[in-house]
Design brief:
By secondary structure, the protein is α/β, with parallel strands linked by helices. The chain contains 5 helices and 4 strands, in the order H-E-H-E-H-E-H-E-H.
Length: about 150
């Protein structure tokens, strides 16, 4: 005896398979897009300074310098009193300690080690808001920023 084929059931099965294939492709593309976005995520560096005033100017200039060199890196600044908290509770990738706050370096470095983030001292010649100083600061950031 020959089994009768139900065209509605067959169409639903084919549609289900097509839809499942479509969903799998969409999910795969979504994962690839997410991984690409993670790889291209903007890097962020934070300057920790005595009051945060001079470092704000340097942060702005360093960001402009790095963007001009086609690096997607944002530089920001905070005072030393906020620095430790920022290291432990922020999404910055690199922390830079200004020359006038180097006495806090060891404590800040320990905080960075606890969360697996680099903390480095800024040499005085890279902490000058002139083109040569900004270039040195930009190069320090590029050198110390984790991949």
């Amino acid at each position: 005896m020959k089994k009768e084929i139900n065209p509605v059931s067959t169409a639903k099965t084919m549609l289900s398979k097509s839809f499942m294939n479509f969903l799998m492709i969409e999910i795969e593309q979504g994962v690839k897009k997410y991984n690409f976005m993670e790889e291209c995520k903007m890097k962020k560096a934070l300057i920790i300074c005595a009051g945060g005033m001079s470092s704000s100017l340097l942060a702005k200039k360093a960001t402009e310098y790095l963007k001009g060199k086609e690096h997607d890196i944002e530089v920001d600044a905070v005072s030393a009193t906020e620095g430790g908290k920022k290291i432990e509770n922020s999404d910055f990738d690199l922390f830079l300690v200004s020359p006038q706050t180097k006495m806090y370096y060891q404590n800040l470095k320990k905080a960075g080690d606890r969360v697996g983030k680099p903390v480095v001292n800024i040499p005085p010649q890279a902490y000058v808001p002139i083109p040569m100083g900004i270039e040195k600061l930009g190069n320090l950031i590029l050198q110390e920023l984790p991949e």
